[in-house]
User: Fold this.
Amino acid sequence: MVKNADVPGEHNPSRLAFTRAPNPNPSRGSVSFDIGLPREQKVRVEVLDLLGARVALLHDGPLGPGEHPFRWRGLT
Assistant:
């Protein structure tokens, strides 16, 4: 889950934003998406189930400015 995400397709975000929305959606397997950052900052990218429990932690730490691709294989 990406908190405070902007509208997909915004490539120069003023804040943390999806630059490519999760795809495919819905999915029963792997999902890919990109996030964009205007500056270096600490980011936690999680996959949550419908009840809000964490299923996977994809990243927890600093990321530089620009786009960052993520992929969750859907195995956990």
In short: The CA atoms of residues 47 and 56 lie 5 Å apart. The beta strands are 17-23, 31-37, 41-48, 54-63, 66-72. The chain has no helices and five strands. Confidence is low (pLDDT under 50) at residues 1-10.
